[in-house]
Amino acid sequence: MKKNIVRIVLFASLAFTATSCTDDLSVQPNDRLIVDNYYTTEGDFRRGVDYAYDAFKAGGYYAGDNSQVIIPDILSDNLIQNPQGRRSNNDGYNLNFAGNVGEITSVYGAGYAVAARANAVLDKINNLPAGAFRTNIEAEARGLRAITHFDIVRRYCKIPTQSADAGTSMGIAYVDKFDPFLITTRSLNVNQVYDRILGDLLFAEQNITQSANVGKLTKAAVQGMLSRVYLYKGDYDNAILWGQKAIALKPSVGAIGTFKNIWNDTSTDGVLFKVLNSSIENIKTGSAYNQTVGGQIKSEYVVDYDLYTKFVDTDIRKSSYIITSPFNGKNYNNVIKYKQATDKPIEAVDVKYLRTSEVLLNVAEAMYKKGNEAGALGLLNTLRAQRYSGFVPGTESGQALWNEIMLQRRLELAFETDRFFTLKRLALPIQRSNFGPESNGAGNPATVLSLPVASHKWQLPIPQGAIDNNPQIQQNPGY
Question: Which ranges does the UniProt record give for the TPR repeats (predicted)?
């Protein structure tokens, strides 16, 4: 009986930590969900998977100061701390990593919480009769489990393309069953973790049937995720294959005329998968970047001036992502990507987890790596035509083409969690500029300007709390 009680309490904590956009689960007194009695109807399973989606809205993923809409950009060279802010995420920004630094350890627990909700569904999947509904539910749950394990492994482990020994280095636990008593270990290496991720994604791609709602996984979204994972793995043939499949299903990268509407949530053009946010939930996805004080934007972090100058005036992304405005007598280049929601609180913006433009850039990069410069250039021109007014198709080749692919990736995915991981997987150092935080680059630059390729800090520390609870979990080297 004690085991059942613990299972009840644990799953209830997972099911109710984030506000849900679905109907409430049927619960026993004291909001304790009895798992063994719950998954019996199609509605039970649909709500169970929806709770897994909702877990992305919890603190550590996309809510609070340590929201992952900002942390990978803080760690890299896209942002600089505003001295007039609250100094939130200060340790992360200063690359002062330790197992008790919340902003760099938060995805570990938050990610496994998503996986736990997905596994609770999968553990009971045989309660459903065979058929299309069951197959789709299993595909969505396995797709979510894969995505969240990928988010964990790319943060806390080496990326396969990062170094010669990365694939055989220590991975993470791949948790594929719901068991609150499970004692996990890091017995898998990185390649084995990626194989498990790909196994779940390939199953999802073959079996997922829902296709209309970008707030849930679709075939195109899963194909796009496959292109991302294969790119990280260094399997460029498969990055191209699955990326092209996703582009074939959802070819638009977001038209230049309506691009801004993606960020106020009145358009899903070019969006493959996003984390939905509502007026009721009001997850303040933009508060980690800035707040409004006395009618002015008070930013925690602003756009590094070196990056800002790379957004030319004819680029629709400049006005869609950034606004220059004063605070206490000084001008700053503020990130507004998460402060433009329409018909709901302005910070209740949906988080765009995956867009077609990223997939296109994945394929372009992989094509370049495989020697297909013409194909890479064609894709790059497709993207640029929808970002620059009056664009004339480029003719770059060789190193100039590679540099432009990298530039467009940085501009397109700025403030969308990509920059740290792009530098990490390409084994490039972090090199911050010498500019200060003001809109013209004035002011004091960052105290810590660089992180060398050889640093152990590219692999973030496992939370000390997780190790305290389970001594079988090994800390990363260097911490």
Answer: 220-253
Same domain, 46 and 148: yes
Q: 21 pLDDT exceeds 60? A: no
Per 3-state DSSP, the chain is made up of helix, strand and coil in percentages (nearest 5) of 45, 10, 45
What whole-number distance in Å separates Cα of residue 333 and Cα of residue 305?
A: 8
Number of domains the chain contains: 2
247-251, long-range: CB < 8 A, 24+ apart? 247/356, 247/359, 247/360, 247/363, 249/219, 249/220, 249/223, 250/220, 250/356, 251/356
Whether 244 is covered by a domain: the verdict is no
Q: How many CB atoms lie within 10 A of CB 346?
A: 15
CA 84 – CA 305 distance, rounded (Å) = 17
The reply to whether 231 falls in a domain is no
- Tokens standing for 219? 């075939």
Q: DSSP of 322-355, one letter per residue?
A: EEEEEETTEEEEEE-TTS--SSS-TT-PPEEEEE
- Are 422 and 463 found together in one domain? no
Residues 198 and 265 in one domain: no
Q: What residue type is 246 in one-letter code?
A: A
Amino acid at 84: Q
Band of the pLDDT at 444, cuts 50, 70, 90?
very high
Question: Among 69, 219, 75, which residue's Cα sits nearest to residue 143?
Answer: 219
Q: Which run of H or of E encompasses 302?
A: strand 301-303
Token pair recorded at residue 405: 């692919």
Domain CATH code at residue 48: 1.25.40.390
The β-bridge partners of 81 are 301
Three-class SS of residue 418? Answer: coil
**Residues 327, 468 within the same domain:** no
Tens of pLDDT, residue by residue over 158-186, are: 999 999 999 999 999 999 999 888 889 99
Examine the domain organization and report whether 280 and 306 are in the same domain.
Answer: yes
The DSSP-derived string for 58-121 is SBTTTBSTT-TTTHHHHHTTSEEE-TTS--TTHHHHTT---TT-HHHHHHHHHHHHHHHHHHHH
Give the tens place of pLDDT for each residue, 268-324.
Answer: 999 999 999 998 888 988 899 999 999 999 999 999 999 999 999 999 999 999 999
Report the distance separating Cα 312 and Cα 438, nearest Å: 18
Residues 175 and 27 in one domain: yes
Written as six digits, the tokens of 27 are 């619960």
Domain residue limits at 391: 252-448
Co-location of 132 and 60 in the same domain? yes
**Does residue 242 belong to any structural domain of this protein?**
no
